[in-house]
Write a structure and sequence with these properties.
Distance between the termini: 66 Å
Radius of gyration: 32 Å
CATH class of the largest domain: Mainly Beta
CATH architecture of the largest domain: Beta Barrel
Helix content: 25-40%
RNA sequence: GCUCCGAUAGUGUAGCUCGGCCAAUCAUGCGGGGCUCUCAAUCCCGCGACUCGGGUUCAAAUCCCGGUCGGAGCACCA
């Protein structure tokens, strides 16, 4: 008998004698990894993202699109986008949002293999409802919400639970035919009325909604609509979904849906959930709250930089590659997270920096007269890593940032980047005199600049507005900016921006990050 | 009230299934330095964590029990 004492080395030595092949196994475990964990796949992987198109894709939806499509890609499977648009009233779909979702998917580099509209398949849901009624697993309930809640909380069946199948069927037909009006009847799935978790007890699968559906091809054709748990359960099976990966908020959904799967003899897909995601920069947000703020003019639209939608990130120049990496690096831990977009910005910066041209943008501009200004053309590089040069003719009048000259006094000296050195002679109004050190002179000597380097914009400028999530910057920029519409550029000493529009000498840029 | 999840540096994240090489990974952030005529990029160096209390064990981030904290569900929303 080997004793129970000893240090790890001696144990390993003993193991080496007894079972040398196990040593290797012990040593190869616990490799650090990041990103998405492997999936258990038997045959084909089919994944879906199922939004309610009652607004455009938010950062939360993006996680669903990226993670699911990434898995589909990894396992050469299928990625389906399914619009769960079965609520024409409380969270009614927005017609534009259907297109926006598809467009956003494309931006993220994943054209879905299939696009499915739940509202196209009501007859299919009815069919399964009937099947379950015939099996005695579903019943029409005409209790009011409050009444039913009382029965449910008391673990008691409501009076409709044991209705005969024939009668249930008749009531169901009446629901479909208009024999009941909105709020008068629902179809419930029979589970276990004594289930210890009240959330599981006889949940509602269909209700009557008289509001017309926003899709013109659907309109007012239907009055009985499935609720999420039923709609999703049926459709996931029909589509052959193998893995459901979504937020933790839908965890209980699985338990409810399993009743239906068991009744129908189906196998439930494998599931994974990620925890609640809260973003520092945006705080709590709901689609309906944003919608309201847009209507009342607080935000300019669904792509306002203050709004947590993908459309807004796109407008700011956050690349699809950065967003994908950001979401994938998050993995799918069930922990609730509260994160900052710093990480996303850092990823994006690395992607965008090599290609972003540099420009001077002066915010809160202050006019500066230069005494003895030589007539020169400044030639800063478009990019520090390349040799092509911008040409900025500088005269006796320049603009500099207020923040750069605040606190300065007559006699203080500054380096105007790529131009020359100046000495302040007066602050009100701002006047300075050129004291040499032109760019050519510097090139000859390569001396280090002696004074604080600031950037500037000449008298010939374009006015520039930068819309950032937290505020708006107004100022002037060098004229070359007008050729960059749609591009991400770096405003030196300011940050990366995407040039959104250029209208008659006025540029609007969206701030990405520093 | 009932039920279900979760807890690793400032923020994310790996490791937990199957206890040992974990004095705990990677990224971001922060601090210092090099380079640079941008406060960007880049390069070097550094900082910083296993929620608490018990238990099991030769050995616990990892297994068990309890507490605390955080989140979610109990809708005729998704």
């Amino acid at each position: 008998m080997y004793g129970l004492t000893g240090d790890p080395e001696s144990w390993e030595q003993r193991l080496r004698e007894l079972a040398p092949d196990l040593i290797e196994e012990i040593h190869e475990r616990k490799q650090p990894s990041t990103g998405l964990p492997d999936l258990e796949v038997n045959g084909k992987a089919v994944l879906r993202f199922a939004p309610n198109p009652n607004g455009p894709a938010t950062i939360g939806s993006v996680r669903g699109i990226v993670v699911n499509s990434e898995y589909a890609r990894r396992y050469h499977g299928e990625f389906i986008i399914r619009f769960d648009d079965t609520d024409p009233k409380t969270k009614a779909p927005m017609l534009d949002a259907y297109t926006w979702y598809l467009d956003d998917c494309e931006y993220l580099g994943t054209v879905p293999d299939r696009v499915v509209y739940a509202s196209d398949h009501l007859l299919e849901y009815y069919e399964y409802a009937k099947k379950l009624i015939l099996m005695g697993k579903a019943y029409v309930c005409t209790c009011s919400r409050d009444e039913f809640k009382r029965y449910k909380d008391a673990c008691e069946p409501c009076p409709h639970r044991d209705t005969d199948v024939d009668v249930n069927l008749k009531h169901w037909e009446q629901m479909l035919d208009g024999g009941y009006s909105e709020g008068d009847a629902v179809l419930r799935i029979k589970t276990d009325i004594k289930h210890k978790d009240p959330a599981m007890r006889d949940w509602a699968a269909f209700r009557i909604v008289l509001a017309p559906h926003p899709r013109p091809e659907i309109g007012d054709r239907f009055r009985v609509w499935p609720l999420l748990d039923f709609e999703s359960a049926i459709k996931d099976h029909i589509l052959g979904i193998t893995h459901i990966i979504r937020g933790k908020d839908l965890m209980d959904s699985e338990q409810r849906q399993r009743y239906v799967y068991d009744y129908l003899g189906w196998q439930y897909p494998k599931t994974m959930h990620w925890g609640r995601m809260k973003i520092h920069e945006f705080g709590r947000f709901s689609t309906s709250a944003i919608s309201e703020a847009i209507s009342d003019g607080t935000y300019t639209g669904w792509d306002d930089p203050r709004v947590p939608t993908l459309r807004a990130l796109r407008r700011r120049g956050i690349t699809a590659a950065a967003i994908r990496k950001f979401m994938i690096d998050l993995g799918i831990a069930e922990t609730d997270i509260s994160l900052s977009l710093d990480n996303l910005y850092a990823i994006n910066r690395k992607i965008v920096d090599p290609a972003a041209n540099r420009y001077f943008f002066v915010w809160e501009p202050v006019r500066m007269e230069i005494l003895g200004a030589p007539d020169v053309i400044a030639t800063p590089k478009y990019h520090p890593g390349r040799d092509d040069l911008r040409k900025i003719p500088a005269g006796p009048t320049l603009y500099v940032c207020r923040t750069d000259i605040e606190g300065l006094e007559a006699g203080d000296k500054l380096r105007l980047k790529n131009l020359y050195d100046v000495e302040i002679t007066s602050t009100e109004p701002l006047v300075a005199r050129c004291i040499g050190g032109t760019h050519e002179a510097w090139c000859a000597t390569c001396e280090k600049p002696r004074y604080q380097i600031i950037h500037w914009v000449p008298d010939e400028y374009v006015s520039v507005v930068v819309r950032a999530p937290d505020r708006m910057y107004e100022g002037v920029g060098e004229t070359g900016i007008v050729d960059e519409q749609g591009n991400v550029v770096q405003f030196e000493r300011f940050g990366f921006v995407r040039i959104d529009s250029v209208d008659t000498g006025r540029v609007v840029a969206y701030f990405a990050h520093r």
